[in-house]
Amino acid sequence: MPKLSKSLPKYRKHKASGQAVVTIAGRDHYLGPHGTAASKREYDRRIAEYLATGRRGVIEDETQIRVIEVLAAYWKFAKGYYVKNGKPTSEVDALRLVIGDCKKLYADLPAESFGPLALKAVRQRWIDRGQSRPTVNKNMRRLTRIFRWAVAEEMVPGSVIHSLTAVPGLKRGRCDLPEPKPIDPVNLHTVEVTLRFLPPVTADMVRFQLLTGARPGEVCRMRPADIDRGGEVWEYVDSDHKTVHHGRKRTVFIGPDAQAILRPYLLREPSAVCFSMREANQQRRNARHDKRTTPLSCGNRPGKRSNADRAPGRKRRRSKEQFDAGSYRAAIHHACDAAFDAGAPLGRMEGESDRARKKRLTSKQLDELDTWQRSNRWNPNQLRHTRGTEIRKRFGLEAAQVILGHAAADVTQIYAERDREKAIEVARQVG
């Protein structure tokens, strides 16, 4: 007669999710990240209940709200809440990452059992991914915010958020996480070299931003209707800037040099953006066509796509009319590559596109190329820091704060008017 087995259910690793799992009475119970102390304590608890019930297992309350339900409900709320001008904000993308990581580890955990150890386990995923210390702390606050919302909706008891807030953020110098690199000003000679490889519209965006210290998004959104041209120094009021939800007003002061750059673009419709992405793309295509050496009878000619005849029902994708911060930055990066690619360790072959070059490179070569590009590309935000650094040297810290729009939200009308006069004087002198 075979000997009956008295072994206990095994503590195992679920390879797909990386979680610890134990199967009791034919049902899988996920315990948290495999190998952690929290998951082993949860395993011990499950086994103790299993033995206490005579190896039958505990019949769980199916009506108990799980973490996955909290995350799904908050995601539905967030997609409708974090919206600006009909488009989702960058916070939605950040929440997608936070919710996804939490779901992979604790989807089936009862929401009221999500505590400090669970929060630290999810935090460890961000640390292992190489995120900087401030980013990890922001994601911790986002995850805590999700459960605070669930408490307000009476999905989980208030004790959950009370326990999560007991987990402190990571402190500078008291952990091994990297700090984000500061945004340094860009060298003006580097900007001048890059401008030669930009279409005229995008080059004027760079020159305008460098003179005014505006944010990239403010330059992209600017319309003739938003600019008050009644004084010697023009004033551009951005009604859609990044801190508008805090009740702050953002005015970009436009001096004589910046006015000269902007003036041709004010002939557009009042509601149209000054700097058109569609026009910039057409200028770029025209410049490439002017350098063409292949006869028009060979290859593609202007206005024809290579697969147009093969897919007659396929609609041609048109360029967007308005730049955003991402497309503006990408245009500058392409120009940087064109300007400095001769010194790259793995430069393009003659007539080779960037995509084709990346296809022929090995993983090690791609890493080498990525390192080189990071050191030779600059971003639009660096123009703002360049202007802010110059103004601070010439006029002091207060003037730089005014020009860059860093005033506190509780500034009184008297100080606001004083700052406005100071900003007008600075803009008159620096352009």
Summarize the structure in words.
With 431 residues, this protein is mainly alpha-helical. Helices cover 50% and strands 7% of the residues. The chain has 17 helices and eight strands. It has helices at 37-52, 67-81, 90-106, 116-128, 133-152, 158-164, 188-195, 200-212, 216-221, 256-262, 277-290, 325-340, 354-360, 363-376, 380-395, 397-404, 413-430; strands at residues 12-14, 19-24, 27-33, 83-84, 87-88, 227-228, 234-238, 250-254. The strands form three sheets. It has a three-stranded antiparallel beta sheet with strand order 1-2-3, sandwiched between helices. It has a three-stranded antiparallel beta sheet with strand order 6-7-8. A two-stranded antiparallel sheet has the order 4-5.
> How many separate helices?
17
Q: Which strand order does the major sheet show?
A: 1-2-3
Q: What overall geometry do the principal axes of the alpha carbons give?
A: elongated
Helical fraction: 40-55%
C-alpha Rg (nearest Å): 29 Å
The main pleated sheet reads as: 3 strands, antiparallel
How many strands appear in the DSSP assignment?
A: 8
Detail the poorly predicted runs: 408-418
| Broad structural category | mainly alpha
**What sequence of helices (H) and strands (E) makes up the elements?**
EEEHHEEHHHHHHHEEEHHHHHHHH
**Roughly how many Å apart are the termini?**
97 Å
Mean pLDDT: 81
Beta-strand level of the residues, as a percent range? 5-15%
Task: Summarize the model shown.
This protein is 50% helix and 7% strand. The protein is built from 17 helices and eight strands.
